[in-house]
Amino acid sequence: MNKDALRIAASTVLVSLLVACGGGGEGPGNVITRHEVLPASDVTVLAGASVPLRASAETFGPKLRAMVWSSAAATGDTAGSLSIEDAACAHGALSARDVPGSTGLSVGSGICETSARVPANAEGQFTISSTVMAADETRSAARILVNVLPKPRVDYDFTLAARVDGHADGTVALNRPLRIVADVKFDKPIPAAAKLEYEWSFLVGGGNFTSGSGLALNGSEVTLVLPAQGLYVMLVKAKFTHGAEVRTKTATVTLNAEPASASSAQRQLDFTVSAATAQPEVFVGSPANLRASYTVSSAVATGKPSFKWSQLSGPRAALSNPALASVFVVPGEAGTLVFVVEATIAAGAIEETRSSAVTVRANAVRERGAGG
């Protein structure tokens, strides 16, 4: 695909003209019949974040030859540059099928998912372009405008993660004590006068705490018992205070509670699913890409799983095709949003479903310190 990428790069002027005229898919015979990109609108991100990207295209007549991404500064005072992973879509999926009864006519299709990395020193406006090319050299381009805000300057930066001790996959037993831990890591030692406070709560489900009081627990770890089978999502807030600097970060942990007798050895399929995102915090109106991955025992002959995404809690968000393993969500309001994916896999007459949750925190654009 490298030669095609060079060919497209060498025809930037032609692509610009096609974009100015409404795209490259309106030529004779409407060769490129569809070219869509996500995000579908302008994006605002903090420096140091990433922008998920997805392009899909179809051709009629010639096959689809290439799909590439590129980026450039949109204004003269833009600082830094974006780095697009797999810009030549080497890992994209291109396919074609012949049109029955025709001579030399095909229907081509392609999908390319990747992301653009925003360096910590970037600031200003950038354009990200998706260009597709058919075998007859017909091209189409679509562009996304990315507004990059500077990362807030802080004296002490930190990360926050939450985990359930001794249960890496989040599968736990009912009515047994569980130790949930908040892990905080600072970029440098903090003064003794600094204060770090914690607060735990449930976003989905509810349990019985056996340490602390109520839901306003202020320790870095809690012990609890889950009373019913199902999916639970816990939220921990860590508030750091040092003089005038006050910052709050959040993290979540997902628990799948099962009866103590439902051990993995008793499951007919050794099948797990995990939901994750590379954009755990976004601005309102900007997307996060949620991905489901799975593992299944190689000793079991199964097909590929089917997926079903839905939103469990938080302000409602637009969700792209929920039947795909990879989906885009665009929050319309600030808040913490919880999404769950259900994956179902079959082996002969055996069918089992697993679920996993992932959270996205949406910040109002005026909050220039997303996550701070």
TrEMBL record:
It comes from the Bacteria. This is Uncharacterized protein. The lineage of its organism: Bacteria, Pseudomonadati, Pseudomonadota, Betaproteobacteria, Burkholderiales.
